[in-house]
C-alpha cells in the first residue's frame, strides 16, 4: 500500500524545501572570493608580522643596529610602523569582506526577484557600482603591496643565487652572504620563508580582488537588466490599462447610443 505521509514527513519536506531555497539564494561567487580574501590577508598579515619581527632580530643581533631616539625615524621605527599598518589592514579587510558578502546576498536576491520593487534594484545598482570602484582601488593597492613584499624575497634569492655561483680568487670568497656576519642562518632562513608566505598571501588577495571585480561587474549588469525589465513591465502594464479603459469607454458609448 501507499505509505502514510504524517506530520513528521511534511515537516521534513518543508525543511528540505527551505534548505534548497537558502542554498539557491547563497552567492557562491562572493563566498569563494571572501574565503580567498580572508586566507590571503591572514597569511600576509601573520607571516608579514613575524617576518618583520625576524628582521628586527637580525638587525639588532647580527648587524648591531641600535634603536634611535624617539624623535628620529630609523629603520626599526619604520618596521614598527609597518607592523601597525598590518594590524589596520587585517581589521579593515575583515570588515570589507563582510560588506561584500552582504552586498552579494542583497544583489543576488534583487536579481532573482526581477519583478520586485524598482527602487530596491536601482539602489542595488548604485551600491554595486560603488563597490566596483572601491574594489578596483584596493586591487591597485594590493598590487603595490605585492611588489613591495617581493623586494626582500628578491634580495635574498639574488644573494643565494650569487653564493651558489661564487668563484674563489686567491683563496678569497667573493660571495656576499649575510649569514657571514653571525650565526643567524636559522633566523635568516625562517625570515626569508615568512616573507615568501607573506608574498603568497598578498598574491591571493590580488586574485580575490580580481574575482570580486568580476562578480561585482556581473551583478551590476544583472541588476541593470532587472531595472530595464521592470521599466518594460511598468510601461506594458500602463498601456494595457489604457487600452482597457478605451475599450470600456467605447462600450459604454455604444450602449448609451443603443438605448
TrEMBL record:
Keyword field contains Protein biosynthesis: no
TM segment ranges: 84-106, 127-148, 192-222
Entry's Gene Ontology BP terms: neuron projection development
Annotated Gene Ontology cellular component terms: axonal growth cone; dendritic spine; filopodium; neuronal cell body; plasma membrane
Keyword Transmembrane annotated: yes
UniProt entry keywords in alphabetical sequence: Membrane, Transmembrane, Transmembrane helix
Annotated membrane topology: Multi-pass membrane protein
Location of the protein in the cell: Cell projection, Dendritic spine; Membrane
Xref: InterPro entries: Myelin_PLP, Myelin_PLP_CS
Pfam annotation, one family: Myelin_PLP
Complex formation: Interacts with OPRM1. Interacts with palmitoyltransferase ZDHHC17/HIP14; the interaction leads to palmitoylation of GPM6A.
Family: Belongs to the myelin proteolipid protein family.
Protein name: Neuronal membrane glycoprotein M6-a
Native source organism of the sequence: Oncorhynchus mykiss
